[in-house]
Design a protein that fits this description.
Number of domains: 2
Largest sheet: 5 strands, mixed
Low-confidence stretches: 138-145
Number of helices: 2
Shape: elongated
CATH architecture of the largest domain: Sandwich
Distance between the termini: 13 Å
Number of strands: 10
Strand content: 35-45%
Structural class: alpha+beta
Length: about 140
């Protein structure tokens, strides 16, 4: 099957650079799938667990905390604010961050920065979904492969 190059880059490092068959991610417009020869596109991303399909392997995930996705004739480039592979994620820390963010949102009040708490919650859930897609709300659905 045809492949394309996927690069996931943060300001600090290249998190992933490899040939893949398909990716699923979430943009501000909704869920987005990319296959080889996809039309050129640039779109902002929301925090999500990007799903990556590679020939003869189970799909895997990359936690992405916002950024942009660019599809061009040569590659798909994810310029992420932050990104982590599942093996780099501290699950206990991500669960703690999710619980803190949920508590802040539930308590409300003027002293709570709601937008910041929502971003923290989305990032924690994307990290948990990268480790185990069933662990967090909002994980991208798995295609019918």
């Amino acid at each position: 099957m045809a492949t394309f190059r996927l690069r996931v880059v943060t300001p600090e490092r290249t998190v992933l650079d490899r040939a893949v068959q398909e990716i699923l991610t979430r943009s501000v417009e909704g869920e987005l799938g990319v296959l080889p020869r996809h039309m050129p596109l640039i779109t902002p991303l929301v925090a999500n667990a990007l799903t990556v399909y590679v020939e003869d392997q189970s799909p895997f995930h990359v936690a992405v905390a916002g950024g942009f996705l660019e599809v061009n004739e040569r590659e798909v480039l994810v310029l992420a604010d932050s990104a982590e592979l599942p093996e780099d994620i501290d699950v206990a820390r991500a669960e703690s961050a999710r619980n803190r963010a949920q508590s802040r949102l539930e308590q409300g009040g003027e002293e709570v920065d709601v937008a910041r708490a929502k971003r923290a919650l989305a990032r924690a859930e994307s990290r948990l979904a990268a480790v185990d897609p069933g662990r967090a709300r909002g994980a991208p659905s798995v295609s019918s492969k």
